[in-house]
Amino acid sequence: MESLISRCGVLASLLEVSAYPKPGNVHRLYDMPGTRYEHFLAGGVAIEPYLREAARRGFEASRGVRGWDELEIGRLIREAVEETLRWQRGGNVNLGILLLFTPISAAAGSILEADRVEAGRLRSALGRVLRRATPRDAVEVYEAIGRAMGPETLGEAEELSVLDEDSRRRILEEGWSLLEVFKLCSGYDSICYEWVTDFQLTFEVGYPTLRRRLEEVDMNDAIVETYLTLLAHRPDSLIRRKCGLGKALEVSDMARRVLEAGGLGTMEGRRLLEEMDEALRKSDGALNPGTTADLTASSIYIMLLEGWRP
Known about the structure:
Layout: H1 2-18, H2 37-46, H3 48-62, H4 73-87, H5 95-111, H6 119-131, H7 135-148, H8 151-154, H9 166-174, H10 178-185, H11 190-196, H12 200-214, H13 219-233, H14 237-243, H15 245-260, H16 267-281, H17 290-305
């Protein structure tokens, strides 16, 4: 059971990075300076044991073997980040994915039946996992973020900044849960927003878009259009941290124009997509919608857990 869940997670990671062209992202036809497509493949493989352990712990919590506050989500995320950095030399390739996939894996482990889960039940179970994450989980996630990301991509929080070493002490002494910490940044960071909304973007935007488009177009185009839909729906957090909200909104508007022109299903949509891709790549990674890629991956993960196969 745990292996099925973790393999779905690995496959979701590999399918997301392989879809092309996702404007501004690394994919099978495009590398960035210092970070290649192969680095993402290695990262996708490296996380499997940690997704499997999260699923096992979720199963045990559902059976009363351990408490829901003993899932150790934060430790699993930190260890998976460390393992990813040992498996490849391209830097941070999956922190956002781990912040999404680890609680999803625990939730799936708690409800998996007949080799699949139902999305509605999964979201309900996920909410329980998110609300029981502890202050220790929060400190572990801070450690993971510090190891995966540099100050230039973190941005500065008004309270409990990852860049402030005293934040870890305060979290433990004042009893800040991971969910409470993420509430502080949920207005401008989409991963934090997912945590405080029971993964609203994944379950209400990405997953239904992907499910619908898979009935109409091939797998690659469905994934790319899911990515564009998520990007049009919400400005990308990574771009916002690097370049400001104005630039992030401009990129979202570009995605919206591609979709309004028919997406990958029309010549005009494809032309605009290629123009968008070229424009974002001129930024040398500054206009890379990396958080949107993570949300696309979590949407694929839900589809795979429901039983869909490529």
